[in-house]
Amino acid sequence: MQVFIVDDEYIARERLKRFLKDIKDVEVVGEAETKKEAVQKIIETEPDIVILDIKLPDGTGLEVAKEIIEKGTKPYIIFATAYGDYALEAFKLNSVDYLLKPYEFEDLEKAIEKVKNLEEKERNFVNVAKVIATDQDFLIPAKTLNKVVLLRPDDIYYIKAELSETLIRTKDKDYLSKRKLYEFEELLSHKGFFKVHKSYIVNLTKIKEMKIVEQSKFLISFKDIPDTIKTSREGAKKLRDYLDI
């Protein structure tokens, strides 16, 4: 698993790298000491895990987590900090663990093991989606409250990347999934789904109309639901090319 370290203290980063070197199947792919540097490099490297300090010279690790998630990068996040006051906010960001300095090697090892277990569960969940099938269509597991349902692709209007999950919009209800947006894109591309924005995949068969708005973007409206989605500029260009319009 690829790990990115964010901490403004050189000694802390070096200690963390020594710990990680002794954990199986883990590779450090980058490090940063400021919020700005961290956001840029994490988006570029797309690591599996980000280990974040809370206090940084130009912001906080919480802000780093929010920004990378909003930009579509969703690594597993472990906070490692001397400040215990931010644990609740950290877990609201769906972080895997919150280590208080000075933590020991065993604490970090357990946090990494949590990530590996979560990844295995998510991988199995994706595999289930790929093998569940009928004669006419495959089905997609999704959840609402305490229930898991199986959705047909034709039931779905669009899929949106949220902070820690993806939202699946149907005619009557919203559902949630732990699957990442790019996984849905791969799974549904042959079913008429198209990525129109870094945070949205839409079912082209459910579109009512596409209105041209600023900077040549499209404002998409749907049949039977009041929702609208504005494409990105790049998404609109790719959609034009795809539809040959």
TrEMBL record:
GO terms for molecular function: DNA binding; phosphorelay response regulator activity. It comes from the Bacteria. Residues 140-245 form the HTH LytTR-type domain. Residues 2-116 form the Response regulatory domain. The modification 4-aspartylphosphate is found at residue 53. Keywords: Phosphoprotein. Gene3D superfamilies: 3.40.50.2300, LytTr DNA-binding domain. Pfam families: LytTR (PF04397), Response_reg (PF00072). PANTHER family: STAGE 0 SPORULATION PROTEIN A HOMOLOG (PTHR37299:SF1), TRANSCRIPTIONAL REGULATOR-RELATED (PTHR37299). This is Two component transcriptional regulator, LytTR family. The lineage of its organism: Bacteria, Pseudomonadati, Aquificota, Aquificia, Aquificales.
